[in-house]
Amino acid sequence: MGALHIDRREGGVHVFTLANEAKRNAVDPELLEALRSAAVASDAEGARCLVLTGEGPRAFCSGYDLRVLREKGGSEERLPDVALQETLHALERAAPPVIAAVNGAAFGAGGELAVACDLRIAAENATIAMPPARLGIVYAPEGLQRFVELVGLSRAKRLFFTGDPIGASEALELGLVDEVVPEGQALDRAVELAERIARNSPRAVQGMKRILTLMRRRELPAAAVAEVEALRRASFASEDAQEGIAAVLERREPRFSGR
């Protein structure tokens, strides 16, 4: 099980570190709850900027723990990734800006954790991939929308339809990250930027973050909500999802049947 390390630094900068290095900082419901609670608590404490990173040099976050995902499947009332979306919403609703220090691989849930932050600093060895199509899973509309807003509809389709990873330089060209720094320097640069933001008026910075968040809200039409829910629930319960997750865990190519 992973843990969340919190470093409260001078000037109102709080650094959150996903600490599950044995699983390349994969998230599970408990770690997501810890991150959600930390964002709320730091907001209440008056933090002026938050930084999110992963433990060790290999990964920012390798995604949702697939063993947990396989156990839950689509049989429960709540879909397994609802906890992820709740945490992402908490980061977006937090008054202080959040900066992702992408120190390595950011796959699946890890990629969306980075995208849900206000700014992203990537190490040159970082890679980003959104592989739900390789897992047989229909991704949450909120997550798809976050990528569309950053890279546009066509590029978002390519990222999600292929599941292919992209490197830091391509992510910068696409607008998926804001800056690329040498390997091992993502956290230092993110903290430097956070300290710069924290010296500004918190009322002004947080007010503008709130306005920008309100400006980007795009809700699905009511008629589409049930259709999206049905598509997603069917995918989590499908044979393709079972095969996709098993293939990753067994380190082999999936054999999808479309069922």
From TrEMBL:
<protein>
    <submittedName>
        <fullName>Enoyl-CoA hydratase</fullName>
    </submittedName>
</protein>
<keyword id="KW-0456">Lyase</keyword>
<dbReference type="InterPro" id="IPR029045">
    <property type="entry name" value="ClpP/crotonase-like_dom_sf"/>
</dbReference>
<dbReference type="GO" id="GO:0006635">
    <property type="term" value="P:fatty acid beta-oxidation"/>
</dbReference>
<dbReference type="GO" id="GO:0016829">
    <property type="term" value="F:lyase activity"/>
</dbReference>
<dbReference type="InterPro" id="IPR001753">
    <property type="entry name" value="Enoyl-CoA_hydra/iso"/>
</dbReference>
<comment type="similarity">
    <text>Belongs to the enoyl-CoA hydratase/isomerase family.</text>
</comment>
<dbReference type="Pfam" id="PF00378">
    <property type="entry name" value="ECH_1"/>
</dbReference>
<dbReference type="InterPro" id="IPR018376">
    <property type="entry name" value="Enoyl-CoA_hyd/isom_CS"/>
</dbReference>
<dbReference type="InterPro" id="IPR014748">
    <property type="entry name" value="Enoyl-CoA_hydra_C"/>
</dbReference>
